[in-house]
Each structure stands twice: as C-alpha cells, then as structure tokens.
Amino acid sequence: MVEINNGIEFVKDTPYRGKDVWYFIQSTDPKVAPIGSPAILPAHQESGDTSIEGDSLDEQTKMGRIIAASTNEDSIELTTYMVPGDKSHEIIIDAKHEAVRLRYGASLLTHVWPL
To answer: What ranges in 20-107 are assigned the alpha helix state H?
Structure first.
C-alpha cells in the first residue's frame, strides 16, 4: 500500500525586509531599450510593491452559465525621489503615454531575478 501524505507543506524562514529589495525597470520599446541594453535602477527608492491579479468571467446566459478566466493585471508601484539625470521617470511616463509595456525585476542583496 502506498502512503499518502495529505498534510500541509510550509516554509519557516525570516521574511525579506522591504528595504532590502531593489526594483529595476526596462522599456520593451526597442527604440528606447534595444535588446541587450541594461536595466535601469530608479534612484532613491523609498518603497516598492508588486501586484499579480486576475479576474474571472461568471455570467448566466440563456444557454447556461459561463465561467472562464478573464483579464490579468500585473502591476508594480515604486516610490522614489526625483533625481536629475535619472532616466527611470522618463521611461515610465513615455511607456504610459505611448502604451508600451515595461519589464521589471527585483534584486535582494546578492540575488538578482532577471527581467
């Protein structure tokens, strides 16, 4: 007989502090950031937050109920000080006005997640 473990798996460790996480951004517009160009570290970050959200469609129709995945919304929120020469604010504003996506990544002390 095969033993089945229906228990709970968990991780017990010290959580990362927000001040230890750095956020990087990069435009997906090849005119702004050609392939191979470096990511930008926004200067004097105060805080950052990421959100991965989704929605589902749940409608009653004449032919029955429809339940399906709908929209996904991933976002990043950064609070920084304006610093002369910092390109990050320009990249964010241009991306919003030109409907261009941004890539973002995070770095924690010595570990870097790719963009």
So the answer is: 88-98
pLDDT in tens, 28-84: 888 888 888 888 888 887 777 777 777 778 888 888 888 887 777 777 777 888 888
| pTM for the model | 0.56
Q: How far is CA 68 from CA 53, 58, 60, 114, in A?
A: 15, 7, 12, 31
Mean pLDDT, the chain, rounded, equals 78
Residue 77 has φ and ψ, to the nearest 5°, of -125, 125
Q: Give the per-residue pLDDT at 56.
A: 79
Whether residue 40 contacts residue 24, with contact meaning beta carbons closer than 8 Å, is answered with yes
Query: What's the residue count for the chain?
Result: 115
The whole-angstrom distance between residue 51's C-alpha and the CA centroid of its chain comes to 7
**Which residues in 13-50 are b (16+ Cβ under 10 Å) and which e?**
eeeeeeeebebbbbbeeeebbeeeeebbebeebeebee
